[in-house]
Amino acid sequence: MTDRRNFLKTSATMAALGSATLSAQSASAAAGSNERMRIGFIGPGGRGFSAHVKSLCALHAAGRAIDLVGVAEVYEVQRDRVADHIKKETGTDPGRYVDYRDMIEKENLDAVCIGTPDHWHHKQTIDALAAGLNVYCEKPMTKTVQEAFDVEDKWRDSGKVMQVGVQSTSLPVWDEVNKLLCDGKLGKVLGFQTEYFRNSDVGQWRYYKLTPEMTPKTIDWDRWLGREHDLAEDMPFDREVYKQWRRFWPFGSGMFTDLFVHRTTSMLKATGLRVPGRVVGAGGIYLEYDGRGVPDVATVAADFNEGVQGLITATMCNQESRINQLIRGHYGTFAFGNGEGFDGFDFIPERGPVTHVRQEAERIATTPVKNTTLAHFENWLDACEANDPSMCNNQPDLGAAAMSVVNLGAQSYRNGQVYFVDDRKISDKDPGWAGKWEARSVAGGPASHIPGWNAGDYGSTQSAPEYMKYGGPWVDGKDPASET
């Protein structure tokens, strides 16, 4: 394994040298098939403990060649809880740290799992990649879209393995759907819709319990805020902010980045779409008047240059009447279940007089995955052992694309702006979005398609009725039909 004890001493130099330094560091391969992979945890709070730590403990017990050797956590009660659990389950007493940089320096790691609040993801991911480590980062990949693009670039330069923690991307169904779409099963793909509804009698994210043990003596508050790196403004210690941070804009974006990112990532994987061209968000706080900043009702509409629209919508105050998760095309629709536990999906054909193709409704089977979180970590370990970043089911390019949809939707809601993206440049100035489609219509097409489309014009054209020959402008009083 690569010795990383000099990480802190050389971090400033690495930042200056940029990608050249990163490339040199990444020349050392990840854990080979006959070596044990040393993993450290950064910020294993709720999700970081229940999903990251416990999944990898289970995989260790199942015989995977991994050792869980370090825990970096600013809350000493949680730090000891996690470390004690690892010792009990694996027999290894992990090093206990407040600052993750000390863990990287001392533990000779091969990989880290990042489970901190969103505002830390970019900084910690960049530091880990620069230190030559493979990374598992909980969703969302970053706090902002520009941070997401930066992580994607640094990841590509590093050659390291990185998985973004949207576990539903380890369902085989999305690759299966993508092949059907590209082969033209639905004809021209027009749009997708998805959701993540919830309901609660206490308010979304307020079910994370506050305890008297949470004090400035047990929690390094300045470090949690990220004051050293200007990640957040200074503010008094607050148990509510610490434990229920998803309710507050400085640290998260509510349902946009905690929930919408799940289903949005799946839809992007299924369609092959990535960064949108136009995004608008809407919503408000209509019931949960508990001091939160983020909305309890929200919708994002994202338009893509491939001629596809994505709709993501939900409320945190109603769960039993969720909208269906769908992908629509000119010749039919794929209808999916809500959640991750489905064993198939439905093909709903359009009417024969429209398609002029004989189609039957059908149920298309897929392989269910009992525990998607465990499968997602297995996929990451497989990629690390093979030293093959392309094996990961949710790589940073997909993570950045999902962030560009949900985070721009959140910004649009807050700022009252429509956002446009062109070659990663984000603007609230309309470049003529509607005009370009109107010009396409005047020119008579052609239709744009999802990446990987190989079905030609199937389901992508319309015929002109005979009577349309009577249409068109009369120039100098002359009937255009007289020329036909």
UniProtKB/TrEMBL annotation:
Where do the Gfo/Idh/MocA-like oxidoreductase N-terminal domain residues begin and end? 37-165
First-level EC class: oxidoreductase
tRNA-binding recorded as keyword:
no
Q: Which PROSITE patterns match?
A: TAT
Q: Which UniProt keywords apply?
A: Oxidoreductase, Signal
PANTHER family xref list: BCDNA.GH03377 (PTHR43818), OXIDOREDUCTASE FAMILY PROTEIN (PTHR43818:SF5)
Name the record gives this protein: Inositol 2-dehydrogenase
Q: Which organism is it from?
A: Allorhodopirellula solitaria
Q: Which gene encodes it?
A: iolG_10
